[in-house]
Amino acid sequence: MKKTAVGLFVLFLFGCAQQLPITDDQQDTASVIQPITKPLTFVSMVTAAEIKAAAQAQTVAAEKKAIEIKKQGSVSTDLTTDKITASTASMKLAAVQHQKKIETKDGMLILGHHEWVLVLSGKKHISAYIDPQSSTSRIGVKDLVEFERDGNNWVKFTFQAKEYKYPVKAWAKSKDKKRLPIVLLRTKLGDRNDEVEYQLIDGGNGVVLGEKFMRDIAVQNSQRKYIQPLAK
């Protein structure tokens, strides 16, 4: 038993003597990849006010561009808005006028609730309100004065910066019982050229065409406006 223990101890010592010592130089070292770092670049902070200002600037620029495009496509037409009826007529509407008259199968003109007209020798188109519920047509004039000539009633007035004198055909009364002269004035609508009875409204500058004008020549489509071509 003793001999056996001694033999094992000798073998242990022999094994230790055969094992070479491991040094730091003999150890396999794993190469470590060092990360490449770049200096950080700091961007200045943008405030909410600056963002809002930039957005507003872009909006203004877009609006200016739209206006320029609209000007390039607009048509230079001399028009007057009907103030009596608070018409919202625009030059754009006049620019898309039909070139031919629009009528029914039996030859009646089709009128919208507004149409462009020329009155007397005026050069400016007026947006006339078409009112089949009104019997007599009405027109706004300036500086209306009544006078007599050869025993007959006449009126003098200014229309589109030009003075006219016309005999009074009849008289009407306004809602406030004011006497209104009725005269015959040359009126062009589309390809028509007629003498129309008008009540003269001092201080206005619009036109209303009533049932007497439309009688036997026109019908109305109240869902549309500016159906007929511009008068020449």
Automatic annotation (TrEMBL):
It comes from the Bacteria. Gene3D superfamilies: Acid Proteases (2.40.70.10). SUPFAM superfamilies: Acid proteases. Keywords: Signal. The keyword Zinc-finger does not apply. The keyword Signal applies. Residues 1-19 form the signal peptide. Residues 110-228 form the Retropepsin-like aspartic endopeptidase domain. InterPro entries: Asp_endopeptidase, Peptidase_aspartic_dom_sf. This is RimK/LysX family protein. It comes from Photobacterium toruni. The lineage of its organism: Bacteria, Pseudomonadati, Pseudomonadota, Gammaproteobacteria, Vibrionales.
